[in-house]
Amino acid sequence: MMIARHRFLAILAVCMMVLSGCQSPKGEGSVRVTGDFGAPVSITIDGTIAVKAVTTVVITQGDGQEVTEDSPVLLRATSFDSRSGRVVSGYETGTVRLTTANKQGLGDLADQVIGRSEGSRLIVERPGLVRDDESAVEIVVVDVLYTTAYGEVEELPDPAPSGMPTIERGDGGGPAITAGGGEVPELSVVRVVTGTGSQVSVGDELALQYSVVDGNGTLIDTTWNGTGPVAVDLNSVMEGLQTGLVDQRVGSRVVVLIPSSLAAGEGDRVAVVDILAVLDGDAE
């Protein structure tokens, strides 16, 4: 399955990215990146970086969906000063961002990110960090994150908890709920895919994809209809979903079975959720 392949390639990518590097196009210096894919990174610079135009090197080629113009895109972009190797402060550098793949959402990075595959790590070198100082090059490490769950596919429990719907793999890697599971007597969480990212904490703002159905399998809400990932404040969701997501890991797909008493009194609900990123508190 594609998710399992994501898992294998993600492990391989981590091994390559922890100490990955690129040679500056003119050969004066090189950049080495330290840090797991999707996590905060640092760089080490050997020699002097000098570029006259924007250059991009693909450190790792991703295996996920292609980023298309005006589609949602999830990424972590961290800018460094070539003279010191230190992080350039400001404009959300180093944070995980959920935005739109166009000039308005990505600024000058749009040309480098659009057309790339999710799971890719790029090094972008841009001259002109400081006016009239050719030695001041902005070095941007860009991780293009996945917009579907990525991790190890789990076997479903047997017997499944009461209320568990029938779930198949739909178009684009999302879940397709083909039959409802009936009454949900108590809160239960089933991990369909186990990610390896950071754990979700109370009050986090998350990037999610999800589908919500009732006990009959009737669709209530979904992001898999073309909407794409959305930012969700965990404090704003129904109590059962909040409880079910806390302590789960980024990269996971979980099925949260929510009885009516924990679903705002609107009847039983089942949420299938891809946990893609923690959006706040990630900057270094």
What features would you describe in this structure?
With 284 residues, this protein is mostly beta strands. The protein has two domains: 2-144, Chitinase A, domain 3, CATH 3.10.50; 152-278, Roll (Chitinase A, domain 3). The chain contains four helices and 17 strands. It has helices spanning 2-17, 103-106, 110-113, 239-245; strands at residues 20-23, 29-34, 42-47, 55-60, 72-81, 96-100, 121-127, 137-144, 152-153, 163-169, 175-181, 188-194, 205-213, 219-222, 230-233, 253-258, 269-278. The strands form four sheets. Strands 9, 12, 13, 14, 15, 16 and 17 form a seven-stranded antiparallel beta sheet that branches. A five-stranded antiparallel beta sheet has the order 4-7-8-5-6. A hairpin with a 7-residue loop joins β2 (29-34) and β3 (42-47). The chain is elongated. Mean pLDDT is 88; it is low at 7-19.
How would you summarize the topology of this molecule?
Layout: H1 2-17, E1 20-23, E2 29-34, E3 42-47, E4 55-60, E5 72-81, E6 96-100, H2 103-106, H3 110-113, E7 121-127, E8 137-144, E9 152-153, E10 163-169, E11 175-181, E12 188-194, E13 205-213, E14 219-222, E15 230-233, H4 239-245, E16 253-258, E17 269-278
Antiparallel strand pairs: 1-2, 2-3, 4-7, 5-6, 5-8, 7-8, 9-12, 10-11, 12-16, 13-14, 13-15, 13-17, 16-17
Summary, kept brief:
The chain is mainly beta. It has 4 helices and 17 strands.
Features:
single chain; about 280 residues; mainly beta; Chitinase A, domain 3; seven-stranded antiparallel β-sheet; five-stranded antiparallel β-sheet; 4 helices; about 10% helix; elongated
